[in-house]
Task: inverse folding
């Protein structure tokens, strides 16, 4: 009897011991190592962005990565073109030799500027239409806005994250392109006369101008999308808005500078007038004749088609004693850009404020 009982007891005790030891060992070693591995794997796989920022980035990652990739490629192309131009300038003997004498040889490098500036000037329009207009209009149209509104995240936080992340990507890309293009153009900026610094190809693509134009275009497109709540309609209207913005900006940009007037030395009436000289790269605005009383006359007052004696008689009768030229020097370019950009930034801030105070109510 005892022989039968002892093995049973030992068996039960052995089984219990093995079970308890195995369980304790598994608890002490196995699960802890497993949990550590799981934690390590989770930490490794966890995205750097989290929460609403990660959601917005993932939702618009195709557009954001496209912008970043295009910026890198365009910047690399401009760096390459600048290196090619500098090799030519060094071999040519610039700046000791005037670039005006190398018109044919330098023409391909100016052509490179043209090809790049065409794309850079279109950036605010493309960003407004392809990024700004669908940013919220797409969510309102397909119902994503209602789904997000039903979550614990407030509409203000969702809107702020959308606008902040989009604005950050737009700012980084446009600042990069603006800085690289200005670095490319800078060596010949004050020496090459065939480039008009007030043109949209150069004024709108350097300094803060492209950043301000792009942000206003994008956030203006966002507001249009919130109002229309249809992606395609918002993109069409935003296209018109961005084109109108470019036109208005181009019309008023020269008024951002201070006009400088150069006047020639006065001579006796009827004497040949020598027009005043202006800086080589200055933007010429107007030239007029000046009478002894300070009155301005158009340069066609005494038309050159008359005989020389008749021209002198006409100028003597009008008491013309000199000439004046109005121009804006290139030294004002940076201040004009910052002044205009500050106006555009203020308008952008107004659009963003309007989106928060009025537009957030429509995000359902």
Result:
């Amino acid at each position: 009897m005892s022989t039968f009982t002892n093995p049973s007891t030992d068996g039960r005790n052995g089984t219990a011991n093995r079970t308890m030891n195995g369980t304790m060992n598994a608890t002490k070693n196995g699960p802890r190592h497993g949990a550590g591995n799981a934690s390590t794997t989770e930490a490794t796989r966890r995205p750097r962005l989290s929460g609403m920022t990660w959601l917005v980035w993932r939702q618009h990652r195709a557009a954001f990565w496209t912008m970043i990739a295009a910026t890198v490629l365009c910047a690399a192309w401009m760096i390459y073109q600048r290196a090619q131009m500098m090799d030519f300038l060094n071999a040519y003997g610039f700046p000791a030799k005037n670039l005006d004498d190398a018109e044919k040889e330098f023409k391909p490098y100016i052509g490179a500027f043209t090809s790049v500036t065409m794309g850079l000037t279109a950036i605010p329009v493309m960003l407004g239409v392809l990024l700004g207009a669908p940013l919220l209009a797409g969510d309102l149209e397909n119902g994503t806005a209602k789904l997000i509104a039903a979550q614990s995240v407030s509409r203000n936080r969702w809107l702020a994250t959308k606008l902040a992340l989009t604005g950050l990507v737009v700012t980084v890309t446009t600042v990069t392109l603006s800085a690289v293009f200005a670095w490319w153009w800078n060596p010949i900026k004050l020496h090459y006369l065939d480039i008009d610094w007030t043109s949209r190809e150069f004024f709108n693509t350097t300094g803060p101008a492209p950043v301000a134009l792009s942000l206003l275009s994008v956030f203006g497109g966002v507001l249009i999308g919130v109002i229309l709540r249809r992606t395609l309609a918002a993109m069409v209207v935003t296209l018109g808005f961005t084109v109108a913005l470019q036109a208005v900006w181009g019309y008023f940009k020269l008024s951002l500078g201070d006009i400088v007037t150069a006047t020639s030395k006065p001579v006796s009436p009827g004497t040949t007038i020598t027009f005043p000289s202006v800086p080589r790269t200055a933007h010429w605005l107007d030239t007029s004749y000046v009478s002894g009383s300070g009155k301005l006359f158009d340069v066609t007052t005494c038309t050159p088609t008359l005989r020389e004696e008749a021209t002198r008689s006409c100028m003597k009768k009008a008491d013309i004693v000199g000439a004046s030229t109005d121009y804006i020097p290139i030294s004002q370019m940076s201040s004009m850009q910052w002044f205009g950009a500050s106006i555009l930034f203020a308008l952008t801030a107004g659009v963003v404020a309007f989106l928060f105070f009025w537009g957030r109510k429509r995000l359902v």
Remarks:
- Residues 61-92 form the longest helix (32 residues).
- The two ends are 82 Å apart (CA to CA).
- The longest strand covers residues 283-291.
